[in-house]
Design brief:
With 569 residues, the chain is of the alpha/beta class. Helix content is 37%, strand content 16%. The protein has 21 helices and 18 strands. The chain has a six-stranded parallel sheet with strand order 2-1-3-4-6-5, with helices on both faces. Helix 10 packs parallel to helix 12 and helix 13 packs across helix 14. The longest helix is centred in the middle third of the chain and has 16 residues. The N and C termini lie far apart (69 Å).
Length: 569
């Protein structure tokens, strides 16, 4: 068995069922091994960066390893953006890349990245972009290295790993003589019972004293599959539920105890509940920039912070918790509820929570083109059960996060902390491969789609029916708004677009250009029923500005703060 054949057979054994990569001489043996695999579906992307995003999408809502690959040199370097996403967003991803023959090391051979004699140092670069990177130096180490890499990817907070395979290990006559099945043996991160009891006592005392508690759930709770546990917690103890943008749908957003998204582009009902709370129970979130109003120093002033997270490092960032519970969200919340039941006898009085219905809220619209808020409302109303809605970086993200109300079983994912503009334009393909039974819709800006829309051909060629909805206003909206707010002028943010619908049809996909809400809903309805890759180019107005406040006290308070700061400056 040759090295790449051993890697493919090992990955089959740990449940990998798809591989996303780019073609190249150093990856040629891997491509052939994948061709002969009866379990792994190989998908060659138009660009390796897209392949790395697809691997992230594949791993997003599964407990399976996302796998991407590339040739040596520039192909390998194109994987970095996706690996950075996997690192910041907690996706278990393995990247395998070629590496120039070691016998010529330091001579400047084609694609050499040894770091010697003015060649790039790929070992240093991959080490800086993954949980761990390996250089395979002996064919008989293949199974040991692969096993360690896969286990590191899943251990604790999941993330990316990488293996370099030198060209000289792929030559004829170099064989793996000791192949064995790969063991995936990752211990679950379970909470400390003593710490659970301590936190349960704090919460029980707070309930007895009628203190106001809110739960704030993030993507860690989604990834853990902690929806049932979170629902049990909030219902049994009448705790209002706030979510981050990525926590949307952990419990149905129409649930009586759900008060909305807590973020700078979130809901005023969530801000109000947070502001009035005495205790905030954070579940599976990392309290990052947009969920904390740019890391406001006074965000948790006069509040007790309890933080549940799978990673110890999250407790030592901007907001050290008063009580920390290290553990995967699902078992940690379940343990908390079990402990609370013993400490809180009887029923808890019903919480006074104001409901919302953002999908039905009237939006005043005076211009001819589609209002992006109304577009988001239509997407939300028409989104099928168990669908996944992805949003790349841009103003469309704010509209979708605010106006789409998810039902239980649906998911929403924004561009994460690393925040690439086209991550989900491409990542959706991997997600759909992992979940062929779920509808996958991407809300993306025209700037995002233009960065990576050529992967539509990958979807067509492999019959992967993703739906892309382009919010088309021919400008980088968020950048423009930032320029105007910061510099009082804008520059280099407007551009011309092709006919995206005609492009889609030229690729063999379905394409629609829509200029009214009725046209969009007809096209979207057709796309949902077609089972084909579809691009909907929705012409939106430039005059709408998404809901935003840099203060959790609301828009008016934020304006006052801004004026005061300008006067001080």
């Amino acid at each position: 068995m040759r090295v790449y054949e051993a890697i493919v057979k090992g990955l089959e054994g740990v449940g990998v069922r798809a591989a996303f990569g780019g073609a190249g001489e150093n990856a040629a043996g891997l491509m052939l091994a994948l061709k002969h695999s009866r379990q792994i579906r190989p998908i060659i992307a138009r660009h390796e960066q897209a392949a790395s995003f697809m691997a992230c999408g594949y791993a997003m809502y599964t407990n399976r390893l996302g796998f991407c690959f590339a040739t040596a040199g520039p192909g390998a370097f194109n994987l970095f953006s996706g690996l950075a996403v996997a690192m910041s967003d907690s996706y278990p991803v393995l990247a395998v890349s070629g590496y120039a023959s070691r016998e010529w090391q330091g001579w400047g051979s084609l694609n050499e990245t040894s770091g010697l004699n003015r060649t790039p140092d790929s070992r240093a670069m991959f080490a800086a972009t993954t949980k761990k990177s390996f250089l395979l130096t002996d064919a008989d180490d293949t199974c040991d290295v692969l096993e360690e890499a896969v286990n590191v990817a899943f251990a604790g907070r999941p993330g990316p790993v990488h293996i370099h395979v030198p060209e000289d290990l792929t030559h004829h006559g170099v064989e793996v003589t000791n192949f064995r099945p790969i063991r995936l043996d990752v211990a679950p991160v379970l909470p400390d019972p003593a710490r659970v009891d301590e936190i349960a006592s704090v919460l029980a005392d707070a309930l007895a004293q009628r203190k106001r508690i809110v739960a704030l759930a993030g993507f860690g709770a989604i990834r853990s599959g902690a929806g049932p546990q979170v629902k049990r917690l909030i219902e049994q103890f009448q705790i209002p539920l706030l979510t981050t943008l990525d926590g949307k749908g952990i419990v149905s957003e129409g649930h009586p105890l759900a008060v909305g998204v807590f973020a700078d582009s979130g809901h005023s009902s969530a801000w109000k509940a947070f502001r009035e709370a005495d205790i905030v129970l954070c579940i599976g979130n990392s309290l990052n920039q947009h969920a904390t109003f740019n890391y406001r120093e006074d965000l948790f002033k006069d509040k007790l912070l309890i933080h549940v997270n799978i990673s110890e490092t999250e407790f030592h960032k901007a907001y050290p918790p008063h009580h920390a519970l290290l553990g995967d969200a699902g078992p940690a919340v379940e343990a908390l509820v079990d402990a609370l039941e013993k400490k809180v006898p009887g029923d808890v009085p019903a919480a006074d929570v104001k409901g919302r219905d953002y999908e039905a809220r009237h939006i005043t619209h005076l211009t001819g083109r589609i209002h992006p808020g109304q577009l988001a409302q239509s997407i939300g109303r028409m989104l099928p059960p168990h669908a996944v809605l992805l949003a790349d970086a841009g103003a469309h993200l704010a509209w979708l996060g605010y106006y789409v109300e998810l039902e239980e079983g649906q998911n929403f994912r924004k561009a994460g902390s690393f925040g690439p503009m086209a991550g989900h334009v491409n990542g959706a393909i991997g997600l759909k491969v992992a979940h062929p039974e779920r509808t996958v819709v991407v809300g993306c800006g025209d700037g995002c789609y233009s960065l990576a829309g050529f992967e539509l051909m990958t979807a067509v060629e492999n019959d992967i029916p993703v739906i892309w909805v382009i919010f088309d206003d021919e400008e980088f909206k968020l950048i423009k708004l930032f320029q105007l707010a910061t510099y009082r002028e804008s520059a280099l943010v407007e551009f011309q677009n092709p006919d995206f619908a005609a492009y889609a049809r030229a690729c063999g996909a379905d394409g629609y250009r829509v200029e009214t809400l009725d046209e969009f809903e007809e096209a979207f309805r057709t796309a949902l029923a077609s089972g084909r890759p579809t691009v909907i180019d929705a012409k939106i107005t430039r005059w709408a500005v998404p809901h935003y406040s840099p203060s959790p006290d609301g828009v008016i308070d934020a304006l006052v703060e801004a004026v005061e700061k300008r006067l001080r400056d």
